[in-house]
């Protein structure tokens, strides 16, 4: 009898464990969303570093200033450079390889103390990178590839970013929770950028790991979203209908041009497909989320803070020190929390005192 009771108890325990395991994906996904949706009020970045290196002129090479993330970082660099006492020139690559090549050539001709690569894959401009290294011009970058921090292969003193894989995981987890565990997802990415493919792959992996379905993986150039997304949206609606519950994109820009096509199909701003962006927290994304118009979530990066970090990293390079090691925070922005952390200004700007912290390091 005791043996039979033990077997029955064991069997019951296994059934209980199985039911708990079945519930785990939803529990785990909710935990991730809640973790990144809370306000960011504590400074966890560097508190020591070199004093301001004086008399520097730097160049920002912006991949495309029409991209809200790139523009936000550029603005942050200009603000931080003013605080540290440097001169800045911003050159716009205008969303094309040719434009970025020309801008990089112009940057090197200016013989700046340092160059910031803002929002394009460093490997794309390999010849120019070699020229900059030969001229001993320190290079720091934002979203220049999948490597965070020093990238010796591409000659970058530091590549600044949040944890892109966590950004992607948070976006996918939100969609899974919102769909009550049964999302039908279309993922939008751009294979021009290694970081974009890495983010999209992570979202696909996470949705499938949780038990959701990826309907399609769409590779379309981010620089051509204004031309491509209206018709692409219509075609995908015709193909998948109501089975398309959520869109996951590597950048908010994909959703800038979906609204009219969704509205023409009879969709309201809050109907499926529900749009979720794994970066970067553009002004237009905030406006859509606040208005409930064809986007419910962006996993935002602290663009202005990252601009300050880029200036700090360059200052460390000028001083001959190592990079700071700082990994900036990310934030799941929804209609429920959009009034915190800079939301009223349509940006994720943590209330953690980062400007004062950097000024203190620089002796300003």
From TrEMBL:
Boundaries of every Periplasmic binding protein domain copy: 59-322
Record family assignment: Belongs to the bacterial solute-binding protein 2 family.
Pfam families documented for this protein: Peripla_BP_4
Protein name per its UniProtKB record: Substrate-binding domain-containing protein
Superkingdom: Bacteria
InterPro entries: Peripla_BP_I, SBP_2_dom
Organism: Rhizobium calliandrae
Primary location: other
SUPFAM superfamilies per UniProt: Periplasmic binding protein-like I
Residues making up the signal peptide according to the UniProt record: 1-23
Record key words, sorted: Signal
Localization per record: Cell envelope
């Amino acid at each position: 009898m005791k043996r039979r009771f033990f077997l029955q108890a064991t069997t019951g325990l296994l059934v209980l464990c199985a039911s708990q395991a079945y519930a785990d994906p939803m529990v785990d996904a909710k935990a991730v969303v809640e973790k990144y949706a809370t306000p960011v009020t504590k400074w966890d970045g560097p508190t020591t570093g070199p004093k301001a290196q004086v008399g520097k002129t730097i160049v920002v090479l912006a991949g495309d200033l029409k991209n809200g993330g790139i523009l936000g970082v550029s603005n942050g660099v200009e603000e931080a450079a003013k605080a540290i006492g440097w001169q800045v020139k911003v050159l716009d690559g205008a969303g094309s390889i040719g434009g970025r090549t020309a801008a990089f050539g112009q940057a090197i001709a200016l013989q700046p103390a340092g160059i910031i690569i803002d929002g394009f894959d460093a490997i794309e401009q390999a010849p120019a990178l070699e020229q900059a290294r030969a001229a001993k011009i320190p290079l720091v970058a934002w979203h220049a590839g999948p490597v965070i921090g020093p990238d010796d292969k591409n000659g970058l003193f530091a590549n600044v970013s949040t944890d892109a894989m966590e950004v992607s995981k948070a976006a996918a987890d939100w969609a899974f929770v919102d769909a009550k565990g049964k999302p039908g997802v279309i993922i939008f990415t751009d294979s021009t950028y290694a970081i974009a493919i890495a983010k999209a792959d992570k979202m696909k992996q996470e949705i499938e790991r949780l038990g959701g379905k990826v309907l399609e993986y769409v590779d379309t150039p981010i620089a051509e979203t204004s031309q491509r997304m209206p018709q692409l949206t219509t075609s995908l609606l015709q193909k998948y209908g109501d089975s398309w519950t959520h869109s996951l994109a590597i950048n908010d820009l994909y959703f800038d041009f979906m609204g009219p096509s969704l509205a023409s199909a009879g969709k309201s701003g809050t109907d499926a497909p529900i749009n979720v962006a794994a970066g970067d927290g553009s002004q237009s994304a905030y406006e859509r989320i606040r208005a409930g118009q064809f986007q419910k979530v962006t996993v935002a990066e602290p663009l202005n803070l990252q601009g300050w970090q880029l200036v700090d990293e360059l200052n460390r390079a000028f001083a001959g020190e190592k990079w700071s090691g700082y990994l900036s925070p990310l934030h799941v922005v929804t209609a429920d929390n959009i009034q915190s952390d800079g939301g009223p200004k349509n940006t994720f700007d943590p209330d953690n005192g980062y400007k004062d912290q950097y000024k203190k390091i620089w002796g300003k």
